[in-house]
Amino acid sequence: MTAQSCITERSMPFWCVGSPLSDPFGGAVLNRMDSLETARILAWAGKEGYIEATGFHDDDLVPWDPQQPEDDLDPNSACAKKLREIKAILDEGGVKVNSAVCSLHGHPMFRNGGICNPDAEIRRMARLKVERALRMGQFLGARHYIYWVARDGFEVPVVTQWTQVYEWLADGLNHVRDYIRDKGMTNYVGATVEPKPNEPRGQMFLPTSGHAAGFILGRLRDPDFWGVNPELLQHESMALMNAVMTVSYLCSLKKLKFLHFGSQIKAQFDNDFPPLVGPEGLKETVFMFWALKQLGWRGVCEFDCHMLRAEATPDKATECRKQFIVDCVTALAMALDLADRIEAPAPGLSQSTADLASIRQLCKLTSPNIVRK
Q1: Which family, according to UniProt (predicted)?
Q2: H or E element: which one contains 247?
Q3: Strand partners, 260
Q4: Cα separations in angstroms, 86 against 46, 77, 318, 322
Q5: C-alpha dist (Å) from residue 112 to 117, 133, 152
Q6: Model confidence pLDDT, tens digit, residues 218-240
Q7: What is the dihedral of CA 230, 254, 133, 12, to 10 degrees?
Q8: Of 314, 261, 319, which is closest to residue 44 (Cα–Cα)?
Q9: Both ends of the chain: CA-CA distance in Å?
């Protein structure tokens, strides 16, 4: 990244590269990749200068056994051994860890929620799994913990315990901060909430960045430690929010910790397209980075997307994943370059004229001939 860029580092997470590309209508296109092989691809990307960091869900790296919630603490366990191998590979590639996430959506136990599950025993298991993910992040040097809303949501309002769900949510997130402090995990500079309006649940308890920021400021004991990592364009676009407004609002509250980045068709399911890919979103993406530059924000851009299912190549599984990384970082560089072309509008222009002028700058167009001869 250039010295003047608003993006200080590019982070490509394990879940993006290792995705087997299944969807609700079809099984995996690629074989599920072992986390060691995914780490090697990320290390390659680090050595080539494409990325500086990565992120992970705990389940991306090692399997979880609810009967052994502290297996990572045994240095002779398969879990601890694999984590050491992953760390060695990332270190050799010069790849840091930006984020650690606890997967509270994959195991059937959490089908009705994780830290907001109405069953107290499942909430206890979710807490143990979160603690394990935090320890994994400590070992790998993660700088942020992410609470993705996962399955903490509802479909049927009449059976949802509305007097309790936000108490459970505050308890779960406050415990994250307490555990980090009590265990002396100084690698964590902060934690974030990643909101989402729906999918996998019909509705989520924290659907947008505004909900997340309000909850942090109103309900958490250490709001300064917490921020938001909006997924743009995807999650906010699913709720018809605009990325420029989202980042500007979060910056005004000093709550924009870092970005999750991809592309999306508004009001659809979670497309998770690679950045700039797809039929819409170019202008919104470019002006998002333009706004961040105007606001003086600088931080990490962490990709949160996957390659198009149609372009996965099963017999070249490593090569197509590497190309996906190249495409993502190329798109980010293009968006930043395009944002740099936009100048402050000349005084006295109407809003529409100023907008059209900025589009000409973005596209490097000369003034069009609008008079027919």
Answers
A1: Belongs to the xylose isomerase family.
A2: helix 243-252
A3: 231, 302
A4: 14, 14, 17, 18
A5: 6, 20, 7
A6: 999 999 999 999 999 999 999 99
A7: 50
A8: 319
A9: 47
CATH number of 7-342: 3.20.20.150
For range 39-53, the mean pLDDT: 98
Taking the C-alpha atoms of residue 105 and residue 114, their distance in angstroms, rounded to an integer, is 7
Q: What does the alpha-carbon distance between residue 234 and residue 264 come to, in Å, rounded to a whole number?
A: 5
**C-alpha–C-alpha distance, residues 283 and 155, integer Å:** 34
Within 13 Å of residue 112, how many CA atoms lie on the same side as its CB?
Answer: 12
Domain-wise residue ranges, the chain: 7-342, 345-373
DSSP string for 311-337: G--GGGHHHHHHHHHHHHHHHHHHHHH
Is the pLDDT at 368 greater than 90, yes or no?
no
* 361 pLDDT higher than 70: yes
Enumerate the active-site residues: 57, 60
Model's pTM, two decimal places? 0.96
